[in-house]
Amino acid sequence: MASAREAAEAEFRRFDADGDGLLTAAEIRQANEALGGQGASESEIETFIQSADRDGDGTIGLEEFVGLVGHGRHEKA
Ligand SMILES: [Ca+2]
Ligand SMILES: [Ca+2]
């Protein structure tokens, strides 16, 4: 049983293609496509980053990602 945080961390690592601990728009787009293309548009990806990017550096760090998906906004079946 993974905790919500562990699940979010595992998902973060799947998204983080170059393993630098930051998610960029390009990495999120690639991950979205790899997951079967749920149809997220460029503007939706930008909105996702803006909503998660608390320090305003234009990328999503692990804590920002966990803060966004680890609190009920991202539910798994
Ligand atoms: Ca990265
Ligand atoms: Ca950030």
UniProtKB/TrEMBL annotation:
Residues 3-38, 40-75 form the EF-hand domain. Gene3D superfamilies: EF-hand. GO terms for molecular function: calcium ion binding. InterPro entries: Centrin_CML-like, EF-hand-dom_pair, EF_Hand_1_Ca_BS, EF_hand_dom. Pfam families: EF-hand_7. Keywords: Calcium, Repeat. SMART domains: EFh (SM00054). PANTHER family: CALCIUM BINDING PROTEIN (PTHR23050). This is EF-hand domain-containing protein. It comes from Nonomuraea turkmeniaca.
